[in-house]
Amino acid sequence: MTRILCIFSLSLTLLVGPVWAQSTPTKVIVYPLEAVIDSGAMSHGQYRKRYPGIDVTDFGLTDEGWYIRYTHQKLVYMFGPSDDLEYTRELKAVLEEIRLSAVLKNPKLSSSKIEIVKFEFSFASN
Predict the structure, then answer these.
(1) Where are the beta strands (DSSP E) in the chain?
(2) Alpha-helix runs per DSSP H in 24-74
(3) For the segment 12-39, what is each residue's pLDDT rounded down to a tens digit?
């Protein structure tokens, strides 16, 4: 009986483990747009001190506008918002250069992505 429970427990762990890992929430941190430029110029410690970021994982974005979204595995950095799409595109190019430099130092980051997204509230009409 003990052996059956042990096998059942192991089977349950093997089946539920991957499902739990897939349902683990993605962490979403928001930074101001100007943090993009400083991210390539400051040390990690200086950057974290100046830009602690806002964790919006549990409640989502609250400001409408254009954002630069950096994603890697279960981490998302949102830089923004901005009303100016052209300026956002310029900063995206800066962030892509910083990302390329980071990928050359750490190839595991090659699966990361950078994109521009627009967040706006939509209201359902009756």
Answers:
(1) 27-31, 54-55, 65-72, 75-82, 113-119
(2) 35-39, 44-50
(3) 333 343 443 445 568 999 999 999 999 8
